[in-house]
């Protein structure tokens, strides 16, 4: 097992002490002790933003825009009257039992949770991205980051010269800003995964807007970049939510193959089940299922198990697919952010670069490397004021409010 992914739940409670000094992404990337990685720290721009109430409380679902957020209010006002008249569905925790009995079987809202619909019924909306057009290619990405203990995992990706698409939760970005900066430095693509990781179709229009808006603002504050893609937690999206996302410049990215890595320990899902889900994808690849259109798999940097499993399964995926690339690269998107100072290679350039540069086989890795997927000089963010239980530890201990994180 790679050292930084040791199960933090075995190490006991974290003491309420500030982390050893870290003021830059490069310093953070060199930390190898997972307890030190996940010790909260303060970093001034985020602390200042939190103190000024520029953001909602971290991990709290957004129900209304912040009173002093004139830019957010103006943007929402400009689109509110055109948002589709589709009612919210179920609860933020995903209980749709009072809604689905009367929901039409024709799925008029193109509700993914109901029927895995990816082709919007509403005119003017683009189809969701659930696969990649390049044959024998895997669109590679991870949800729920940035995880405070991800250095060993990101080191491994760097050693393999492998870039990925990282779907970041806004509250995690505020808690772990230097970790978010590392994704940019390493050449990964960052997309939005909402502020509080709840079922998006349950939100009001303003709440759904805020979940996306404040995650965009958090990523911009910390990295200097504004993503153009997002993934709904649990895949829960309909045409109302798609429209709101589209008005914020966000393309909806889903998947067709689920590793179910986040489910281990719940509903009788075992490690063997997850390994089999990976193997099913591999079997499909080797049998020719992706010879004309590639695939996207759902995986997570959620905790020790999900990251360790990704490392263990990577060589098998590499052998099964001709190419493993970030989703933007598979789409030939060379400018994945609103800002144009970060550029990615085209698909053909990326795979040519990988062929010319075999993975580093040496032990260990170094953070902060500029990757072939794109690089940027990120401006610092800050951890929010006040100490919190680190995300990874909370997941290991099953603490309320963190244990629900998943897709």
From TrEMBL:
CDD domains: CE4_MrCDA_like
Catalytic activity: [(1->4)-N-acetyl-beta-D-glucosaminyl](n) + n H2O = chitosan + n acetate
Residue intervals of the NodB homology domain: 136-336
Keyword Signal carried by entry: yes
Keywords: Carbohydrate metabolism, Cell membrane, Cell wall, Cell wall biogenesis/degradation, Chitin degradation, Cobalt, Glycoprotein, GPI-anchor, Hydrolase, Lipoprotein, Membrane, Metal-binding, Polysaccharide degradation, Secreted, Signal
Stretch forming the signal peptide: 1-19
Recorded superkingdom: Eukaryota
InterPro entries in alphabetical order: Glyco_hydro/deAcase_b/a-brl, NODB_dom, Polysacc_deacetylase_ArnD
Compositionally biased intervals (Gly residues): 364-374
Leading EC class: hydrolase
Main location: membrane
Enzyme Commission designation: 3.5.1.41
Assigned GO CC terms: plasma membrane; side of membrane
Molecular function via GO: chitin deacetylase activity; metal ion binding
Cofactor needs: Co(2+)
Membrane topology: Lipid-anchor; GPI-anchor
Location relative to the cell: Cell membrane; Secreted, Cell wall
GO biological process: one example: cell wall organization
Pfam families, alphabetized: Polysacc_deac_1 (PF01522)
Residue numbers spanned by region Disordered: 354-383
PANTHER family: CHITIN DEACETYLASE, GLYCOSYL TRANSFERASE-RELATED
Family: Belongs to the polysaccharide deacetylase family.
Protein name: chitin deacetylase
